[in-house]
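Q: Joint fold for the lines below.
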Amino acid sequence: MENGMNMHKTMTPAIDLRHLTKRFGGHAAVDDVDISVPPGSFLVLVGPSGCGKSTLLRMLAGLEPPTEGEIAFGGKVVSSGKGGIVTNAAARDTGLVFQSYALWPHKTVEGNIDWPLKVAGWPKEKRAKRIDEVLKFLDIERLRQRYPAEISGGQQQRVAIARTIGPRPGILLLDEPLSNLDAKLRVDMRSELMRIHRATRATSVYVTHDQVEAMTMATHVAVLKDGRVEQFGPPDELLLRPQTTFVATFLGTPAGNLIPVTRQGAALTFQGVALADAALAAGQEGAQLLYRAQDITVGAREGRPRVTARYAESAPIAGQSMVTCLIGELRVTAMVDGFFRAEPGAEVELSFLHEPDAVFDAEGKRISQ
Ligand SMILES: Nc1ncnc2c1ncn2[C@@H]1O[C@H](COP(=O)(O)OP(=O)(O)O)[C@@H](O)[C@H]1O
Ligand SMILES: [Mg+2]
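A: Joint structure:
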């Protein structure tokens, strides 16, 4: 794991996870996670379904005790493998938003927002003032007397967020809060959540399986796989310097192409075509080369290595075409200027325009600097 956060070393982290592990039976859902983020961060946990994101978030919320390791908020241990849940969920200063908003159906919008304030012991006048504030902030004032069944899904989501930020939690936990919304609404709510984050300055932990969401919103990203952190750092660092093939192919639009190569003499070859210098693989017999879509194009190019592939599909993107081809089972994405289409299955030449962006060993660990 690479940690690019050294500049924050002196600041007490808002959230500090040390060797955090959660086992269900023999299975580690969260496996030895070490992450620290400074106050005000927007930490995104991203990874495929089942990689342990929700389990990690539930431990942060105090809904689940860790099996091993520790969680500290602002330098204070709130959960540990030894002590279980030290500070209970209600006393944690965390607010939680789930994918299913679960508003109280028998309470109005206003009543839903009021309830957590009441539970937290806010006096009536202060509550009324705060309700007005968050209704205004989320632009849902006109809905205040409605019941959840009388408003749209997107509006329900706004109410759920209003309800959560009402008591001004220091840490906001969000578990795939946008995944029930349609595509357009999701993009709008994404900007809205970033506005809320800037305004509240609450340290946020946001769980998603959507890498675009992750890269847009995060100050810090942790890519999880099988309960483990594959890589942790600022989003641009993960995009530019992926430390594993998993990260290289999970992030980015389109994701990077991984080409398996073998050493033949002084070259790393793919299907008998020399792609790169064998020295790049540090003397190993095999390696995986990362090429960005923009490093590969369709058609022969003078002096450039090329391989034969079969055209699969093409998508227009900002004046270019993102062209997907198949080399055997391997899917390769190339960029072509302007509009490009071919018959599915048609033979095309793919030219490699540049040196590989990165080199990984056979196990998927980065070799290149
Ligand atoms: N209460 C539980 N009991 C047993 N296994 C669980 C429980 N909660 C989660 N798991 C398992 O832990 C793994 C991670 O689950 P989860 O954290 O929900 O993943 P994600 O949110 O990334 O999709 C999965 O294999 C899941 O089946
Ligand atoms: Mg989940």
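Q: Anything notable?
A: Helices lie at 53-61, 109-119, 124-137, 153-165, 183-200, 211-217, 235-240, 245-250. The pocket of adenosine-5'-diphosphate (ligand 1) is lined by residues 24, 29, 49-55 (CB under 6 Å).
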